[in-house]
Amino acid sequence: MPKNWPPSLQIPDAYYIAIGKVASNWAAFEALVNSLLWQLAKVHDDRGACLTAQIANVARSLDRLIFQLQATPLDDILALVDAIDDHMDEFDKLANAVLVEIEPSVGDQQ
Predict the structure, then answer these.
(1) Same structural domain for residues 85 and 64?
(2) Which domain holds residue 107?
(3) Per-residue DSSP letters for 71-94?
(4) What is the pLDDT of residues 9-68, one digit of tens each?
(5) Which of 16, 43, 54, 81 is the most buried (most CB within 10 A)?
(6) Are 7 and 44 in a shared domain?
């Protein structure tokens, strides 16, 4: 943002950072809901993406997820949770590695 803009148009970088975090986390949440739908429907991601692209918004996706969970045998749901849990240590290590890599540069932006 140009510094010569009037004060009423100058928005602190912290606001852009906060908006970016909200948008990023919302997108991750939507992706998680969609991925759960694909897993429960037992379809590959590319076909699942075609299906969930037709759902208007995340609220309707959640409606579909709730319906699908109610219609899915408990054993299948537990198997899905177990499969996710099997990879959590990998995800945790990867997330920590990324955060350690990024952390020093975060302070430079403010």
Answers:
(1) no
(2) 73-110
(3) HS-HHHHHHHHHHHHHTHHHHHHH
(4) 888 888 888 888 889 989 999 999 999 999 888 899 999 999 899 999 999 999 998 888
(5) 43
(6) yes
